[in-house]
Inverse folding.
């Protein structure tokens, strides 16, 4: 395993062990539940939008290390961003996860780059993207999404 892969694995393990913003958000303006029935991941994403910005993000739920770490990374990366920036970031992360030929580097992609290790395991991509799909659903006024199908 390369030094960069080791670093990425450490980031995933750290966010799984000590997830950031893992709590119920009081008085969210947006909320959605994400469910991956293939592996049992269930993530709820909460957002409080003020003046067009994601003032606060949190999540709760259960799932594998990848889904939990991804949700934690999402809350860290997107808190304080505008809703438009959040939509763009979701699209970028989904592209990053699906495009195996896309070059990844820590300097441009930040800690989100740590999730790209799952591209080697296509079935796990749904785990890594569940929280991102749930946030997109929440911002679009949907209450639930499923990665089934």
């Amino acid at each position: 395993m390369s030094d960069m892969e080791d670093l990425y694995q450490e980031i995933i393990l750290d966010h799984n062990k000590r997830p950031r913003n893992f709590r119920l958000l009081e008085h969210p303006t947006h909320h959605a539940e994400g469910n991956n029935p293939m592996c049992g991941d269930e993530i709820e994403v909460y957002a409080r939008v003020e003046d067009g910005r994601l003032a606060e993000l949190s999540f709760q739920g259960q799932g594998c290390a990848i889904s939990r770490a991804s949700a934690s990374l999402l809350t860290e990366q997107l808190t304080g961003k505008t809703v438009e920036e959040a939509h763009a970031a979701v699209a970028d992360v989904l592209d990053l996860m699906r495009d195996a030929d896309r070059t990844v580097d820590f300097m441009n992609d930040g800690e989100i780059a740590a999730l790209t290790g799952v591209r080697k395991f296509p079935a796990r991509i749904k785990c890594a993207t569940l929280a991102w799909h749930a946030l997109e659903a929440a911002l679009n006024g949907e209450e639930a999404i499923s990665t089934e199908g």
About this structure: Strands lie at 30-36, 41-50, 53-62, 144-146. The first strand starts at residue 30 and ends at 36.
